[in-house]
Amino acid sequence: MFPYLDFQHCINKAIETYRNDLFLYGTPKGLPTLIPVIARHLANHQVFAKPANMFITAGVQQALSILCTIPFPNGRETVLIEQPSYHLFIEYVQLHKLPVKGIRRTAQGIDLDELERLFRTEKIKFFYTMPRFHSPLGTTYSRKEKQRIAELAQQYDVYIVEDDHMADLEHDSKADPLFAYDRFGRTIYLKSYSKIPRENILKLDVSNVKEEAVEKGINQLMAVLHAMRL
Ligand SMILES: Cc1ncc(COP(=O)(O)O)c(C=O)c1O
Coiled-coil stretches, from where to where (predicted)? Predict the structure, then answer.
């Protein structure tokens, strides 16, 4: 099902075109010619950021690990995560014995009063959240929730790490990431490109599902497919 030959062709072409760059030491921010390309692509997702503030990492996983390690301007150390959350990140914080707090997230969202209490009373460095297509719940925060989270972060000097790993699966052109609602510059937006090959598989699977099922909630379906690790 996956267009393997097309993918192979692209990889070969990229190696051929960039052979002088690919096998040398890179720059800490990633391939310089790629950054403006990524900037244009992110703008399509309503993520308008200066190329100077963009960094290419070997996936979201590496970006998370760097963010856990580097000091933040708020001088704090505790990471707040939704429960449930991305299992590999949970393993990461446990393995490294990082100070961590959790906030319950259900299909109905999170308790914003509880979020405010945690922001106010704990020394939260950043709140790791998946506003869109949460894994494993498959749900998405409403516009109001995204706005409120951004406001609370500003009020209590907390940063937000937004994991938008499934952004390419969005069909609603009006659904913007939390980053777009953050007027205060508190959100560090992470976008994964490792899901692009899988996206084709997901799209194929979705088209095979009955219309009513799609209407009932494409988000749930994504969660199922994701849980199957397609
Ligand atoms: C929620 C979430 N974030 C990030 C990733 C990984 O992204 P990357 O492959 O870019 O490290 C995954 C992988 O499945 C994921 O489920």
Answer: none
Range with the poorest average pLDDT among 45-59, 60-74, 112-126, 151-165: 45-59
pLDDT at 204: 36
Of the candidate CATH numbers 3.90.180.10, 3.40.50.2300, 3.30.2010.10, 3.40.640.10, the domain formed by 57-196 belongs to: 3.40.640.10
Task: Tell the residue nearest (CA) to atom 3 of ligand 1.
Answer: 165
Contacts of 68 (CB under 8 A, 6+ apart): 79, 92, 93, 96, 98
Protein residue with its CA nearest to atom 7 in ligand 1: 60
How far, in Å, from the CA of 20 to the mean position of ligand 1? Answer: 29
Residue ranges per structural domain of the chain: 57-196
Contacts of 78 (CB under 8 A, 6+ apart): 98, 99, 100, 101, 122, 123, 124, 125
In angstroms, the CA 70 to CA 67 distance is 6
3-class DSSP state of 136: coil
Between the CA of 32 and the centroid of ligand 1 the distance, in Å, is 23
Confidence bin at 191 (pLDDT 50/70/90): very high
* pLDDT tens column, 55-106: 999 899 999 999 999 999 999 999 999 999 999 999 999 999 999 999 999 9
